[in-house]
Write a structure and sequence with these properties.
This protein is of the alpha/beta class. It is built from ten helices and nine strands.
């Protein structure tokens, strides 16, 4: 009996074991945020428009050099000056390959591990590539193919090997050899919302899933803008149990320490969560944690220990 009780105690202890350390990210002034919270952030976040770094804006190297030890890049479809976007169909057909090739080479040259988040929040109607807007070129089918192409090209390899994969997916070949960016040196993150906006048939996260072979990790952006519940996030967490889970963006626009504590509790009890990226915004903005003293105290108490 004593032996059985000892085993049961060990099992109970194992199930109650704390979450392993999670990687931390911030959107905003990282140095200021770390002074504020005592966190040691690894990943700064930048939103990169299509061809930004290649034909307009600062070069790729600027972002890779300034976003910490593990740069976090969200790959958007907007073009220079906000004039138009590239559609998922065009990406799938190879019409945006020059940007993918340039970014892939720059990431390899940086020798840094990178989180790459292509076409985040596809089931959000504010995203120009959401299937709920823009016609057939934005269909979920084209989104899935676009994501697959990004995945193949960004992980690199010989043109022959990449082209074979692309042709098997019904997409055009690529003519450029690229350095190999293997996982986890390159982590391609699929980032739908747990609840579609709008939450209608055809705009569920499952409609956009590119397939397990083309996802290194996945996760939900989750904010407290007045209400929160982790029910649908839990559903998304359980949907693909073989993949690491992330919160590429989370934050709040009110002083709500209960949300911060609940978020930390979710991370602590869901061991596949590997990354949490706090969206702090610009200094003094409505989401700036510095303006929320009780939430800041909760962040220091409950979140920071998870990142150490």
């Amino acid at each position: 009996m004593l032996a059985i009780l000892a085993v049961l105690c060990l099992q109970a202890g194992a199930s109650a074991a704390p979450q392993a350390r999670v990687s931390s990210g911030v959107y905003g002034n990282v140095a200021r945020f770390d002074r504020l919270t005592g966190q040691q952030t690894e990943s700064g976040l930048a939103f990169i428009g299509w061809d930004q770094g290649r034909t307009w804006g600062k070069p790729y190297s600027y972002f890779l050099d300034t976003l910490g030890d593990r740069p976090h890049l969200e790959l958007k479809t907007s073009r220079a000056g906000g004039h138009g976007v590239i559609s998922p169909r065009s990406i799938a057909l190879g019409r945006g390959d020059a940007h993918l090739v340039g970014l892939s080479m720059a990431i390899s040259d940086s020798q840094k591990p990178v989180l790459l988040r292509p076409l985040g929040e596809p089931n959000n109607s504010t995203s120009p590539y959401c299937a709920c807007r823009g016609g057939s070129q934005n269909s979920t089918r084209w989104y899935r193919k676009a994501f697959q192409r990004v995945y193949v090209v960004m992980h690199g390899g010989s043109a022959t090997a990449m082209s074979a994969k692309l042709r098997a997916l019904g997409m055009p070949a690529i003519g450029t050899d690229l350095p190999v960016n293997p996982y986890p040196q390159m982590t391609v993150v699929w980032n739908p919302l747990a609840v579609g906006v709008p939450d209608v048939r055809g705009n569920h996260y499952r409609d956009y899933y590119p397939g397990s072979r083309f996802v290194d990790a996945y996760g939900n952006d989750y904010y407290d803008f007045g209400t929160y519940s982790f029910v649908r996030t839990t559903e998304l967490y359980k949907a693909y149990p073989s993949k690491p889970f992330m919160f590429p963006e989370w934050g709040l626009d009110r002083d709500d320490p209960g949300y911060v504590q609940a978020f930390a509790g979710f991370v602590r009890t869901h061991r596949r969560v590997k990354f949490i990226g706090f969206y702090n915004g610009r200094n003094g903005s409505r989401v700036d944690l510095a303006k929320k003293p009780r939430s800041l105290a909760a962040y220091r108490r409950y979140v920071v220990p998870l990142t150490r």
